[in-house]
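4.2 Preliminary Data

To establish feasibility before requesting continued support, the project team ran the inverse folding procedure on a target of 417 residues. The structure was first converted into the token representation described in Section 3, and no sequence information of any kind was made available to the design step. The complete token record follows.
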């Protein structure tokens, strides 16, 4: 505004220009005065009680001597007093040393190295797994059960889970080993991501992953967003209507997990994968299901086109690319086109390109009829997780007993074996 007043020249008076711009005239004149007569700050006078140059050099000489080089100024002054000498106060010694940049932290400080942001991408199932452990409250306060869950981030399919009353690297190693066998994982094709928990970073797990040629990835400390898919899956479980405040025992918790993971894998329509079920994506039936949905929408549009104002209805895209921490592109840079979907605490990134995936033989098995599933276990509470199913129908339940360890192991979503 001051520049506008100056450029007005003779066409407008200074008062008129200031009124038009809403600028006080005093401000304008003060700025102009500062330009024409700049104020030069006068040097600060040296106090009469300040140390002389010789005294300052003496302070530095004493502080740098071998006798006092590792001592604080207060200790130095005290030692000199005991010897009958006084050169300055501790605070003055601090000021002299600070001016020479010789006041530093004396203790060793923790040095936190810069952690690399994990950037993982999956273009198909069984390329990147995420696993974590959560606590389930037991029958009384202080009693917990430990739920180990391995999740495929591309399909959101729970490929393996285990319930135990202890957290152990040995149990985690066994779960990962059996899950890799069940999913037929080939060497150098899988990355397993986790946080920095003791079980995740244990040497037993590290040795197993090295033996299986599986790449290990870990989150940055205290950054939960580095493991969003496992965190979101746990939130879905603990916010489900059937999740109790406490479990009555190991059998009660195991029965819930069997029914929940069967529902999650086969009946839960996940918003992060175009409302498909994890099993549909994991076993390559996503294109088939989406095409069938599109056929239904096309019929609805032909019957009542006036009900679709903006455009003909379309199904969501088939997931083709899922990231943990997608790389940040420079301004103006080009990268893959992503569609961001939020699920619980996670953020999944998908791309709508087409691809083909094979269908394993296991998916072609006929589903168990409803009348063969048997009654639901333990809690007579109304379920929203689908029809009740017996937790171990046609399968062999494995229970390990080793000291105080009692573990129910399942290497696939919903099926204990």
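Position-by-position output of the design step:
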């Amino acid at each position: 505004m001051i520049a506008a007043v100056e450029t007005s020249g003779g066409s407008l008076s200074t008062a008129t220009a200031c009124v038009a711009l809403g600028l006080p005239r005093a401000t304008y004149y003060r700025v102009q005065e500062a330009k024409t007569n700049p104020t030069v700050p006068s040097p600060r006078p040296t106090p009469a009680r300040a140390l002389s140059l010789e005294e300052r050099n003496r302070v530095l000489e004493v502080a740098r001597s071998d006798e006092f080089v590792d001592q604080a100024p207060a200790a130095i002054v005290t030692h000199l007093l005991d010897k009958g000498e006084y050169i300055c106060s501790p605070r003055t010694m601090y000021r002299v040393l600070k001016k020479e940049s010789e006041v530093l932290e004396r203790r060793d400080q923790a040095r936190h190295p810069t952690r690399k942001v994990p950037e993982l991408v999956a273009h198909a199932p069984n390329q990147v797994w995420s696993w974590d452990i959560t606590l389930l409250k037991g029958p009384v306060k202080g009693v917990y059960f430990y739920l180990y869950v391995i999740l495929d981030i591309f399909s959101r399919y729970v490929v393996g889970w285990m319930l135990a009353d202890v957290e152990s690297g040995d149990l985690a190693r066994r779960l990962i080993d059996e899950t890799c066998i069940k999913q037929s994982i080939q060497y150098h094709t899988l990355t397993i991501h986790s946080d920095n928990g003791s079980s995740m970073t244990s040497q037993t797990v590290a040795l197993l992953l090295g033996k299986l040629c599986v790449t290990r990835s870990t989150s940055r400390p205290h950054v939960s967003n580095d493991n969003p898919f496992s965190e979101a899956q746990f939130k879905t479980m603990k916010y489900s209507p059937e999740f109790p405040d406490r479990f009555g025992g190991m059998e009660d918790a195991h029965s819930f997990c069997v029914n929940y993971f069967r529902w999650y894998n086969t009946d839960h329509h996940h918003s992060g994968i175009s409302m498909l079920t994890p099993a549909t994506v994991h076993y390559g039936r996503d294109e088939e299901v989406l095409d069938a949905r599109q056929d239904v929408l096309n019929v609805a549009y032909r019957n009542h086109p006036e009900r679709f104002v903006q455009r003909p209805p379309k199904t969501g895209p088939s997931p083709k690319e899922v990231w943990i921490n997608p790389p940040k592109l420079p301004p103006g840079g080009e990268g893959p086109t992503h569609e961001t979907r939020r699920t619980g605490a996670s953020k999944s990134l998908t791309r709508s390109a087409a691809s083909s995936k094979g269908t394993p033989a296991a998916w072609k098995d006929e589903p168990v009829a409803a009348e063969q599933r048997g009654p639901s276990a333990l809690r007579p509470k109304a379920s929203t997780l689908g029809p009740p199913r017996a937790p171990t129908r046609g399968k062999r339940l494995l229970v390990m007993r080793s000291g105080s360890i009692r573990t129910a192991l399942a290497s696939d979503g919903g099926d204990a074996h």
